Every structure is written in structure tokens, then in C-alpha cells.
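Note to self: keep these together.
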Amino acid sequence: MNIWFATNNVHKKEELGAILNTSLKIPAEEGLKFNPDETGVTFCDNALLKARELKKLLPGKDDFVIADDSGLCVDALAGRPGVQSAYYGETDGKKLTSEQKNLLLLEELGNNPVRTARFVCAMVLLFNYDRFIIVQETLEGEIVNCRKCMRGDGGFGYDPVFLLPQFDRTLAELSAEEKNALSHRGKAGKIIASLVKNYL
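Structure:
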């Protein structure tokens, strides 16, 4: 029995593998073409969509699939970028780098004093099309005030602009172990890990 993670993002694979303390298979490393359209309107929608799409491609009927959808929700931007976090700022299909997305976010926020935000992660453990468990967790924080306030070389995505006031550090300044202990994906992953143990 294998445990598959419905992503081609190696960073996410490494992060979730450490949280679950197990090895994961991802489509790109196993020669499977996997690039589903994330058309859901919620994180849960997209996580389930990805899990189901990958399950269709798997030769092993008993293999589990884990899928997640996550993003950054900024209060002053009415919850944006939200489920569109990976595609934030795209025009005519032109992707932005993580740094460009972070700079765009800071530009949109400007001097707005409301900086509260949260990372959200919906994670699915899927056994078959109609049998699955979904967990959704968050990590509360704030968006840094300016470009010069972006800090840290760790993590990925929006981590350098996401400040944890209780530590006075951005998510990108935490070690992998520290991040996994408190992150949205870490919280959801620990619950999924406890469930996986019951079925192995």
C-alpha cells in the first residue's frame, strides 16, 4: 500500500513527509501526468478535486491519496488572495514569481493599518471517490508593513511577508521543525497522520 500526495510541488512533499513521518509518492516523480484545473470555490473543494483526480490515475486500488489546498487570506483584502493564492496577480496566464506576488500584496495593502491575515490549509485523506475525511486548519498572523520588512530565507511562497507577532519573526525565519509544529499544514497533517495510522 502506498500513500500518494496530490501535488507536483517537491517543497510540499518534503514538508508533509516530515509532518507525517512517512514517505510519500507524488505524480511527477512516478511518471504520472497530473495537472488538474483547480476550479473549486473553497479550499475544501480544491483539495477533494485534486485527491479524486489523482486516485483515478493510480494502479493500486488500495492506495491512499492525500491532497491539500492552501492559501493566504488577508482581512483587508476581503480574504484575497484566498483560493487563488497560487495564481495571484496572473494576467493572460503569465505567472508571477513568489517575490513578485509578495510585492504585489504589499502594494495592494499599502498603508492600511489592518494587517491581520491567516494561512488556511484544507487536507483530504481519500480512500475512494465517496469515502474521505477532510480537515481544515489555520495559522493566524499579520502581513509585514513594507518591502524592507520582508525577512527570511526559509519556507516558500508568502512566508517572507507573513509575520508571527508572538515570535517577532516571519514564517520564512522559522526552522522547518518550528514551522511544521505550528503551521496550518502542520496542524492539518498531524490530524491526518493520526488517521492514517489507524488504516495501515
